Amino acid sequence: MNTKTVSTNKKAFHNYFIGEKFEAGIALTGSEIKSVRAGHVSLGDAYVRPERGEMWLHNAHIARYEASSYMSHEPLRPRKLLLHKKEIRNLAGKVAEKGLTLVATKMYLKGGIAKVEIALAKGKKLYDKREVISRREAERELARTTKNR
What we know:
Helix content is 35%, strand content 38%. It is globular. The strands form two sheets. Strands 2-7-5-4-8-9 form a six-stranded antiparallel barrel. The chain has a single domain, classed as Beta Barrel (Small Protein B, Chain: A), CATH 2.40.280.10. The model has no long low-confidence stretch (mean pLDDT 85). By secondary structure, the chain is α+β, with helices and mostly antiparallel strands.
C-alpha cells in the first residue's frame, strides 16, 4: 500500500527520547478527513492519554475544512485512537509504571485511511538537549571541513 505522510512532529524528537513505535487508526469526522487529506494538520504538542480503556489523542490540530458547513469540527478536540484492547492495556501499563509518555510522532494516509504513529517516549532534560545540539554542530563542522578539502 502506498503511504503519504501528512504531518510529522519534529518537536517530539527534540523534547523526548523516542522508544517503541506503534501504528493506530484514528476516528475522524467527514470534514476532518478532508482537512487531513489536504494536509492541514499540526502535531506540535500532540500526546496520547489512556482514558476508560480507550486511547485518546489530545492537542492535535486539524484545521477546519474551508468548504464544510458552519457545523464543522472543533480543531483541537480529543480524537479516539483505534487500537486492539491488548495493545491498549499494554501501553496503558507502560505509561503508568515507568514514567513514560505516549507522543504522536507522525500522521499519514495509508491506502486512503488516516493513521497515527505513536511512540513511547521519555522526556529529555535540558542538558540532554544541549548535548544533542553540540554533537550535531560538531558533525556539521566536520562535514564542512572534509567537503572543502
